[in-house]
């Protein structure tokens, strides 16, 4: 039974995954949250048959069209819609949000937030919807998975590089890569604000799960306490905490 429970489930678009990177998928774990499947992976390479001409020689495949590259990229990103966030799965939350759910509400946070001098809100919205994009390949790696920060960053960097190549390179791919790197480095006012949105979305979701499912998710609130970098982040966190106290 344990071997069955620990199987890794891959999407139909598995060929879009670089062969040397493991994929951590949680869709199978959502119905049985105690599974450790989100911390496991299959490292076996994926082999693709070579293209051969009529005389048997191997030929390079033709370059994909821009439309083909875009659809390949978007098909791979569909995994973000079906991969539940690992923290909720581990805590037996029913019907946990997906990675895409999380990023979407972060984008809304950027949209409805007040203007801040020196902060580009449009850039914040873009950053919010790409900051976890590499998880389409590597999955939602959390501290409980036993993966170091350095290794997590390496895997995500390689996944991002693959996704940008899949998109065909060029201006849009470079924009996605730059936004992701800027966020990871916490290297700009926009990155600091979006990192606050990341924490805010998590604790707001935790509050909602507490209300809807009777959970005690105090650890999520404790993990963000004192870590907000912006005035908006601090003010919204206080509002969420105030609403939580009223419910207790």
Structure description:
It is built from 12 helices and no strands. By secondary structure, the protein is mostly helical. It has one domain: Hypothetical protein af1432, CATH 1.10.3210. The longest helix has 25 residues. InterPro entries: HD/PDEase_dom, HD_domain, YfbR/HDDC2. Its cofactor is Mn(2+); Co(2+). Belongs to the HDDC2 family. GO terms for molecular function: 5'-deoxynucleotidase activity; metal ion binding.
Based on helices, strands and strand pairing, what is the structural class? mainly alpha
**Count, helices:** 12
Report helical residue fraction: 40-55%
State the CATH class: Mainly Alpha
The domain tally reads 1
Radius of gyration using CA atoms only? 20 Å
Mean pLDDT: 84
Calculate the terminal CA-CA distance, rounded to whole Å.
Answer: 40 Å
**CATH architecture assignment name:** Orthogonal Bundle
Largest sheet: none
CATH topology: Hypothetical protein af1432
What is the overall shape? Answer: globular
The CATH H-level superfamily is Hypothetical protein af1432
Helices and strands, in order, run as: HHHHHHHHHHHH
Got a strand count? 0
Family: Belongs to the HDDC2 family.
Keywords: Hydrolase, Metal-binding
Subunit structure: Homodimer.
Organism: Brassica campestris
């Amino acid at each position: 039974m344990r071997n069955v429970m620990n199987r890794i489930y891959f999407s139909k678009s598995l060929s879009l995954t670089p062969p040397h990177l493991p994929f951590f998928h949680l869709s199978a774990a959502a119905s049985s949250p105690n599974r450790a499947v989100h911390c496991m992976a299959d490292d076996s390479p994926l082999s693709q048959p070579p293209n051969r001409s009529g005389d048997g020689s191997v030929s390079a495949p033709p370059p994909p069209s821009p439309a083909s590259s875009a659809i390949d990229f978007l098909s791979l990103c569909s995994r973000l819609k079906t991969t539940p966030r690992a923290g909720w799965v581990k805590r037996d939350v029913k019907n946990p949000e997906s990675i895409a759910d999380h990023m979407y509400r972060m984008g809304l946070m950027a949209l409805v937030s007040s203007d801040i001098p020196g902060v580009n809100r449009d850039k914040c919205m873009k950053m919010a919807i790409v900051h976890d994009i590499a998880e389409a390949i590597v999955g939602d790696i959390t501290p409980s998975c036993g993966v170091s920060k350095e290794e997590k960053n390496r895997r995500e960097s390689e996944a991002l590089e693959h996704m940008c190549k899949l998109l065909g390179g060029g201006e849009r791919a470079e924009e996605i890569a730059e936004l992701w790197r800027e966020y990871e480095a916490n290297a700009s006012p926009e990155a600091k604000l979006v990192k606050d949105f990341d924490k805010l979305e998590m604790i707001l979701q935790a509050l909602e799960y507490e209300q809807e499912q009777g959970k005690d998710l105090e650890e999520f609130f404790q993990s963000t306490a004192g870590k907000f970098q912006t005035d908006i982040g601090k003010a919204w966190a206080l509002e969420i905490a105030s609403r939580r106290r009223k419910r207790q």
